[in-house]
Design goal:
Layout lengths: L16 E3 L11 E2 H4 L2 E7 L2 E5 L12 E6 L2 E2 L10 H18 L4 E9 L5 E10 L2 E4 H7 L4 E2 L27
Parallel strand pairs: 1-7, 5-8
Antiparallel strand pairs: 1-2, 3-4, 4-5, 6-10, 7-8, 8-9
């Protein structure tokens, strides 16, 4: 865990998150999640995180959980899903990088929301704001070697060639 982490964690994110859908009119494009009652809950891995929707008699607790997968990237798998030791290590590094980064995020914007082809989660372009500066989350992960660019086709291997693990996903290298 990084020494840069904030003590406050993610508690304020529900008030600072926007949801945008390119199919909406300009007037309705930006919706504050606090108005929707959405709450950022956690980073699941480098390219997926979750939200909890507001209580509603029609939704069971399980149905209130919504996962968002970041468009445009593929991060390595961690744990038993990794195909080799290198991928498992990189998967954990990408997850830790995302957790450290989200501790500094003041606002999250979700753009171009679409249901994932596997169902149960939403795909979105993610823009984060840190200290009044906006960053494309996809670009941050690619620049820091935590992700490959991915358009839905064949994925690059995280197992070959060998990757210098010391040069990947170094949160301390970010200018925050």
């Amino acid at each position: 865990m990084s020494d840069k982490r904030k003590d406050s964690g993610m508690s304020d994110k529900k008030n600072a998150l926007y949801v945008k859908d390119s199919g909406m009119s300009d007037k309705k494009k930006a919706l504050y999640v606090k108005d929707l009652g959405w709450k950022f809950t956690k980073v699941l891995d480098g390219d997926t995180f979750s939200f909890e929707l507001p209580k509603n008699p029609a939704l069971t607790p399980k149905l209130r959980k919504l996962s968002v997968r970041v468009l445009g990237i593929d991060t390595p798998e961690k744990g038993f899903r990794g195909k080799c030791e290198q991928e498992k290590i990189l998967g954990q590094k990408a997850t830790d990088f995302a957790k450290d980064l989200f501790d500094f995020v003041d606002a999250i914007e979700l753009l171009d929301l679409k249901w994932d082809k596997y169902g149960g989660r939403v795909n979105a372009t993610v823009i984060i704001t840190i200290k009044d500066k906006k960053y494309n989350y996809t670009e941050l992960l690619i620049q820091n070697k935590c992700a490959f660019s991915y358009d839905g086709g064949t994925k690059q291997s995280w197992c070959e060639p060998k990757i210098d693990l010391e040069k990947c996903c170094n949160f301390e290298d970010l200018p925050l």
